[in-house]
Structures
1.
Amino acid sequence: MSAFEKNHSFTQLIEFEIEPHQQEPLVLALVEQSERLAQDHGGFLSASVQVSDDGRRVLNYLQWQTREAGEAAFQGFESGEQDFWQLILAYRARTVTFGSFQVRSSIARSHDNALHCRLAG
């Protein structure tokens, strides 16, 4: 593992393709799931749930301090600690796409309105 992977955050993206009438219930379920992850797993940084305008896609964005923290949380899904797989079945997702990404650059606005950029080197 490179020094970069040890020192920079890790992001998991999970995209669900669903019927439009399932979008809002799935959003609520993912918000609840994200709150449990935040409480139950060390290394959690942030999460967001985003929706497409056509109602057919929901994106769950999870950011972790390290790859290990994100992978440990996901192993909890696979071992049945969480009800993630039930979400897929309950909301009849047509497809679910998983992506894992190492953060290489980020930009954020601080409370004093300044922009701060963090670039991996």
2.
Amino acid sequence: MDLSDVSEELALIEGQINDIFRALSNGFQKLEKIKDPNRRSRQLEELTDKMRECKRLIKEFERALKEEESQNTHNTNRMLNETKQSMIKELNSFVALKKQHASENKRIDLFDGPGGGDVFAEENVQLASSMTNEQLIDSGHRMMDETDQAIERSKQVVEDTINVGAETAAALKAQTEQMSRIVNELDSIHFSMKRASQLVKELGRQVATDRCIMAMLFLIVIGVVAIIIVKLVNPNNKDIADIPGLPPPASRKLL
């Protein structure tokens, strides 16, 4: 391509892409000579990073091409589009080569999409500038379907979140009521313990009073018993009055 017909930005990007293609070519030649599986895996990872960078540059090339499309001639735009498609095909060839080596090395191909196709497979990465109206419409319909599905999933997530929030609120309310009942029960227990303490004090005072009365009665009984004993031992002792219930002394019996 005649670089004099394109801008410096496009020429710079194309030069960077060509440098990466040369590095990829040399890297795959070097990979064929490596026997150690670990070294082969590291080499494949490095080549994969270079292919990702190349893919980014091709998209940058397309962006710059669209910006300058109105300024270029028809032939220049056609030549630039052909250059872009050529770069995509060359990158796809390196991707296929990388898949082959990855399969031989029994490594999972992380660079491929979930469907296992090429990174720049025609149905997945066909650029908008090269699509027909029908393809653009189909692509738009797919994007709308995916958007609708994403919205439905978002609605489901919101609904689940609301349900979880309601359940959490109900649980918190039940726990609050339970805590309130526990506080009321603790107040009742505290009052009962206070009342019991008062009763214990009153009972202690009553027991102390009963003991004093019993002690006085015991002293009275001891006194009476002592008087009885002395009277029986010395019946002539006039200092001791007659005790009710005992017979009088013999000298005082009626004639």
